[in-house]
Amino acid sequence: MSSVLKRLTKNWNLNDGASEQAVNDLLMKCPARLTLPEDYLHFLRQSNGASPEWATVDTVYSAEEAIAQSEDYDFLAAGLLIFATSGGGDGYCFEQIDGKTRVTLHSLENVPDGAAAMTVADSFQAFVEQAAIANKKANAKASRKSRPAKPNTTVAH
């Protein structure tokens, strides 16, 4: 795992690494037109899924869960692999767009149709970096809301 990914995921609830068999099974089940990012595969070998429980990312699926979820939601047939969930009814997918693997967000309520997708990152590492920033902002906002209001110290004349 890159030093950036290691730093960003240090507070995640990480699983043990995936076996080579689990990674190979994932690669075999993946649509032929989809190239999974090397940093994602390396992440799985280090941690086969995780529970960051961040503001925008609830779960990063294990290799086995990614296959099962992608099959359950017909994502593989659409050329996508769902690898994480927002926890709010959306799934993060790897999708081949213009010859590059991108991270896209799809509603789990609808079979992927392309029109409902939103590109959220150009790489797995960028996805984790953006999620870290969103989480930091959400925590700062929650912290501000939980502080007691400052007393009014102006004196009326």
Task: Please give a structural write-up.
The termini are far apart. With 157 residues, the chain is α+β, with helices and mostly antiparallel strands. The strands form two sheets. Strands 3-4-5-6-7 form a five-stranded antiparallel β-sheet. It has a two-stranded antiparallel sheet with strand order 1-2. It has five helices and seven strands, in the order H-E-H-H-E-E-H-E-E-E-E-H. Helix 2 (20-29) runs parallel beside helix 4. Helices cover 37% and strands 20% of the residues.
Outline:
This protein is α+β, with helices and mostly antiparallel strands. Helices cover 37% and strands 20% of the residues.
Helix content: 25-40%
Globally, the shape reads globular
How many DSSP E strands? 7
Name the average pLDDT. Answer: 82
| Secondary-structure element pattern, one letter each | HEHHEEHEEEEH
State which percent range the strand residues make up: 15-25%
* Backbone structural class: alpha+beta
Terminus-to-terminus distance? 63 Å
Give the neighbour order of strands across the main sheet: 3-4-5-6-7
Q: Which regions are unreliable across 5 or more consecutive residues at pLDDT < 50?
A: none
Radius of gyration: 19 Å
Largest sheet: 5 strands, antiparallel
Number of helices: 5
